[in-house]
Design a protein that fits this description.
The complex is a heterodimer of chains A (468) and B (139). With 468 residues, chain A is of the alpha/beta class. Chain A contains 14 helices and 20 strands. Chain A folds into three domains: 2-64, 2-Layer Sandwich (Nucleotidyltransferase, domain 5), CATH 3.30.420.40; 68-209, Rossmann fold (3-Layer(aba) Sandwich); 233-459. Helices cover 45% and strands 18% of the residues of chain B. The termini of chain B are close together. Classes of the chains: A alpha/beta (468), B alpha/beta (139).
Chain lengths: 468, 139
């Protein structure tokens, strides 16, 4: 049976063809064309025809990145509790967190939130039967939003807070003009995160928000299935590899694009060892983070703002002015490819720094403390030190046959130790098909997982900037 | 006025039981209703008891030097679970090593405690301060 998987990205539409034969999924071919923004179906049809002129495909999967991911503003009460749970749920639903707000919202916060143009506001707060006052205050303040923006630009609200206020708040918000979707509380009990309900609502909103217009609805009608958010597809694939191929072991996946650097980890230690005290909400086994400020093209200049220190560390002083010029070029022409050795070097430096910081933000930390029994460590987040495989995907990482991302052991203040992998082999998605396989994993997890592994290439130590 | 009600206990893995008994006795003598959870009490046990008994304050003791670690995040949990207005007191040998008490006090106040008491605090005074704080909160 022939399967097609097509991903409509913000810049490129990509497709891959596979043959499914019982337990075996075989990769056959791949095609790319620029995304046809005015009517997405034109590009989609072109890819379909290119890959499969005789129309032999029996099943077609399609994913869409929806402008680089659904923009979500997360609102919670305590930063380490409901806000953390909201952020985590938004990311695991394939969203991009554009702003976060804790405790009581103010008019200023509201203005800041509007500037970020979220598609969804994820409103959380309070355990079930717990806090009401903050949640009520925040909901009441959100009711001012409709008078501040055009109705068609009003974000959809997913309510996932204290169940005691679900009816009251959802009623109040829809009266104010919002499209509101109630979900089960993300944090029904203080140590029990339950993101699935909110995840499902976010996915539904994704389907309704992006499917309408621009040809996606026509595609949906033609092939008879709904699109999936691209990041969710990648998450499904990571999940499938983790569940179906336990021999592959714990791993991380880096998906670096022009606009974001996404980091996934499957596994890692969640329980404390001796002399380690766990803090914070337990993180999911399959964890995803998205760094919207770190990217190779559209976000190259914001990356320089965020991680300029690391960049200047790994670059010679005399290169800095030409590096700035290079970043300027990337900003005006996002599809720009480096032309000379210096620019190639710059591209690698940028990639190294983005990956390093994205991984630091993803991994857990140890903070050294002193107790009655002597030295101990307070662990926040996941311990990924034992992870032995890192997989690279995305335009740059898929193409580079001699680039190995290097994790700096520690560049945080000395008391904080980053729990990133120490010894690992690096594998490259050299056909750049992992996101496309992700959609296939929704129906054929085992086959897609195996096919993904078979299409990875080991990269030996290569030309990464030395000091990183 | 309704009597002041507190939830009392020794936090974390700390099992210093004697001081806890003394505290209960003196608070009670000062007409404070004490819900004493004893030793080795977790943050959530304090909060559970305070919710169920509608207590005015949570009074946390710590004597084994790990108080800072054990108390971190207590205020945040109180807020999420609906006790945003509860009074939080802490006292005992809160940190190990020689540190000025003012420094320790500042650390715990930053963590959201309303008052911080040193090992030599007179519990009769503490009782009076507590009553005043509760009266102020109930207004």
């Amino acid at each position: 049976m022939i399967l097609l998987s097509i991903d409509i990205g913000s810049t490129y539409t990509k497709g891959a063809m596979f043959r499914l034969n019982g337990e075996k999924l075989e990769y056959l071919d791949r095609a790319v064309c620029p995304t046809t923004i005015a009517d997405l179906k034109i590009g989609f049809d072109w890819i379909k025809k290119k890959l499969d002129p005789k129309k032999t495909a029996e099943q077609i999967f399609f994913t869409s990145s929806a402008k680089g991911g659904l923009a979500i503003s997360a609102i919670g009460v305590v930063p380490d509790l409901t806000l953390m749970a909201a952020k985590s749920a938004a990311l695991s639903a394939g969203g991009k967190v554009v702003s976060v707000h804790a405790y009581k919202l103010t008019g200023e916060h509201l203005a800041e939130l509007l500037k970020k143009k979220p598609d969804i506001i994820l409103l959380a707060g309070g355990t079930d039967g717990g806090n009401e006052s903050y949640l009520l205050h925040n909901a009441e303040l959100l009711c001012h939003l409709p008078s501040m923006v055009n109705c068609d630009k009003l974000p959809t609200i997913v309510f996932a807070g204290n169940v005691a206020l679900k009816d009251v708040i959802c009623h109040r918000l829809s009266e104010a003009g919002f499209d509101v979707h109630p979900a089960p509380n993300l944090l029904p009990k203080i140590d029990q995160m339950e993101p699935e309900g909110a995840r499902e609502k976010i996915r539904n909103v994704f389907l309704r928000t992006i499917v309408f217009g621009k040809g996606l609805d026509a595609i949906q009608n033609e092939i008879g299935s709904e699109p999936m958010p691209t990041p969710l597809a990648v998450l499904l694939l990571v999940e499938a590899i983790h569940n179906e191929l336990p021999d592959f072991g714990d791993f991380m996946l880096l998906d670096m694009g022009g606009a974001t650097t996404d980091v996934y980890s499957a596994g890692g230690k969640l329980d404390a060892e001796a002399r380690v005290i766990m803090r914070g909400l337990a993180e999911p086994i399959i964890k995803r983070t998205v760094e919207g400020d770190l990217g190779m093209r559209v976000s190259a200049s914001t990356a320089v703002d965020s991680i300029g220190d690391t960049l200047s560390e790994i670059m010679d002083e005399n290169q800095r002015s030409s590096f700035s010029a290079f970043i300027g070029k990337l900003e005006s022409v996002p599809e720009y490819l480096p032309i000379d050795p210096e620019e190639i070097h710059f591209d690698r430096c940028l990639a190294s720094a983005c990956i390093h910081h994205a991984m630091q933000r993803h991994a857990g930390t140890w903070r050294r403390v002193f107790t009655a029994e002597g030295e101990a460590f307070v662990q926040q987040g996941k311990d990924l030190r034992q992870i032995s495989k890192i997989v690279g995907s995305g335009g740059f990482l898929s193409a580079m046959s001699d680039f190995v991302p290097i994790v700096i052991e520690n560049n945080r203040p000395s008391e904080i130790i980053s729990l990133n992998p120490r010894n690992y082999t690096y594998l490259r998605d050299y056909n750049y098909i992992l996101p496309l396989l992700g959609a296939v994993a929704s129906s054929y997890p085992k086959q897609a997982a195996r096919c993904a592994i078979e299409n990875l290439l080991l990269v030996e130590q290569g030309g990464t900037p030395n000091s990183l | 006025m309704q009597p002041v009600k507190i939830v009392l206990g020794v936090i974390g893995a700390d099992c210093h039981a004697v001081g806890n008994q003394i505290l209960e006795k003196i608070f009670s003598q000062n007409d404070i209703e004490v819900v004493n959870l004893g030793v080795m009490v977790s943050q959530d046990e304090f909060i559970d008891a305070a919710i169920e008994t509608k207590a005015d304050a949570i009074c946390v003791s710590s004597l084994y030097g790990q108080g800072e670690l054990d108390c971190e995040g207590l205020r945040g949990r109180c807020i999420e679970r609906g006790l945003e207005d509860i009074i939080l007191y802490v006292g005992g040998n809160l940190v190990i090593g020689k540190k000025a008490f003012s420094e320790t006090e500042e650390t715990f106040k930053k963590m959201g405690f309303d008052r911080v008491f040193s090992p030599d605090a007179d519990i009769n005074n503490v009782s009076q301060i507590l009553k005043d704080d509760v009266a102020g909160r109930r207004k």
